[in-house]
Write a structure and sequence with these properties.
heterodimer, A: 201 residues, mainly alpha, 2 domains, 8 helices, B: 139 residues, globular
Chain lengths: 201, 139
């Protein structure tokens, strides 16, 4: 890589030699000059975000060359996407999985343990029965919700443990486990959404 | 994005909702799921052991309209087919019949996986040496 403006070798965000803004790095962690991690310090990320927002604001480049203007716009857009993704734990975990080749959208049904499907199916059946039933059945819904929320809290603990383990070792197996926990979490979240008392009452 | 009339039809009046006796040796059960959207689909077939014809098919799907329609349509198509013919059903057939948009193609894949899983389960119970191939469909 060389600077688009002066041809100097290996420019950073700004070229060391001519100070021209370079095209933005697209990888979110690298953009923030961070190592890929599942657990991030929110405060530190926010500090970096504000600092970069000031540094890269397109207004600062309005009187520079059209190329730099363009890069400033691109950089601000990457910055916003990167911050939105990395500050949200679930979005961040999905992003790391994608980076490491565990894209959650590309798994097939074979990746889901049959026990989980059976469990989710049975829970859905019970929940549907409560939703379609009389007032007594509907009265069970808050109980279902409490149970599902406890399941989600348990899953979140497992996610935290496996995240810390991957950050420490970068062993692939932890990402595989993480994906499993996130699948389970998604199913549980769907169930929680269905525990609202239906409108018809 | 609007659902096609056929999807709405299957969604509003799903065919063959229910379940068959899971423990019967002539019933095959396929349970599949799409974790990225949180769907879960159970599809069952009842096969006449003598003729190899699928005499009944039932499903229950917890998911979006397209997932429900895909599995409902699948059970309609399965009835009267031989097990081998049933294996020929492709997710693209379901996509075409229901006019599913690209974002809903995975729902048809799920239905095809469910068919294959049900047949595989049936053949395992029958002790058939040729197990159904595991679905390799790409969305």
């Amino acid at each position: 890589m060389t600077c688009w403006n002066c041809g100097a070798d290996r420019p950073a965000r700004f070229c060391d030699a001519c100070k021209a803004l370079q095209p933005p790095v697209r990888e979110y962690f690298a953009f923030f000059e961070l190592e890929p991690k599942l657990v991030l310090d929110d405060k530190d990320l926010q500090t970096r975000f504000y600092a970069l927002s000031r540094k890269l604001h397109p207004d600062l480049f309005s009187r520079k060359s059209p190329t730099e203007n363009e890069y400033a716009l691109e950089a601000s857009s990457v910055l916003n996407d990167a911050y939105r993704t990395l500050r949200d734990p679930i979005a961040r975990q999905l992003y790391v999985l994608k980076l490491e080749g565990f894209d959650i959208g590309e798994q097939s049904t074979k990746d889901v343990p049959p026990e989980l499907l059976e469990e989710v199916f049975e829970l859905n059946m019970a929940l549907e029965e409560a939703r379609m039933g009389d007032a007594d059945a509907l009265a069970q819904l808050p109980g279902f919700r409490a149970r599902f929320e406890a399941m989600r809290a348990e899953t979140d603990l497992a996610i935290a443990a496996v995240s810390a383990a991957w950050d420490a070792t970068h062993e692939k197996q932890h990402l595989n486990d993480l994906r499993g926990h996130l699948n389970r979490r998604k199913y549980i979240t769907n169930l929680i959404d269905k525990t609202n008392v239906p409108d018809r009452v | 994005m609007a659902y096609s009339d056929k999807v709405l039809d299957h969604y509003n009046t799903p065919r063959n909702v229910g379940s068959l006796d899971r423990n019967s040796s002539s019933v095959g059960t396929g349970m599949v799921g799409a974790p990225e959207c949180g769907d879960v689909m159970k599809l069952q077939i009842q096969v006449n052991d003598a003729t190899g014809i699928i005499e009944d098919a039932k499903f229950k799907t917890f998911g979006c309209g397209s997932a429900i329609a895909s599995s409902s349509l699948a059970t309609e198509w399965l009835k009267g087919k031989s097990v081998d013919e049933a294996l020929q059903i492709k997710n693209t057939d379901i996509v075409n019949e229901l006019s599913l948009p690209p974002v809903k193609i995975h729902c048809s894949v799920l239905a095809e996986d469910a068919i294959k899983a049900a047949i595989s389960d049936y053949r395992k119970k029958q002790g058939s040496e040729v197990a159904a191939p595991v679905a390799q469909t790409v969305a």
